[in-house]
Every structure is written in C-alpha cells, then in structure tokens.
C-alpha cells in the first residue's frame, strides 16, 4: 500500500476519497431508511399488545 504524500496532491486525493465515501455512507443511510417501512409491516406492534404487557 502506497502512502498518501504530504503535499497538495495528497490533500486533493484525500478530499476526493472523502467526497466519494460520503456519498456511499449517505446512500447506505437512505437504503436503511427506505427498508424501515417494509420491516414495520412484518413487525408491527399494536396498541392492544402494548397495553396488554406482552
């Protein structure tokens, strides 16, 4: 693995990597949030179940 140089080119390279990874992480969060309504259909908890204590 080649180290990233400590100059302007290295800073630009790190900025590009950070930019791309931020899109990956934000997209991952979006996928999780999009899946939550689907999961909620299968694991729905009714008020009756909550008031019953079980």
Q: Keywords, please?
A:
54 residues, mainly alpha, 0% strand
Topology of this structure?
Elements lengths: L7 H35 L4 H6 L2
Mean pLDDT: 89
Order of helices and strands: HH
Distance between the termini: 54 Å
Radius of gyration: 22 Å
Uncertain residue segments: none
Q: What is the helical fraction, as a range of percent?
A: over 70%
Largest sheet: none
The structural class is: mainly alpha
Shape: rod-shaped
Which percent band covers the strand fraction? under 5%
SS element count, helices: 2
| DSSP summary, beta strand count | 0
How would you characterize this protein structure?
The chain is mainly α and 54 residues long. The protein has helices at 8-42, 47-52. The longest helix is centred in the middle third of the chain and has 35 residues, at 8-42. The N and C termini lie far apart (54 Å). The mean pLDDT is 89.
What would you say about this model in short?
With 54 residues, this protein is mainly alpha-helical.
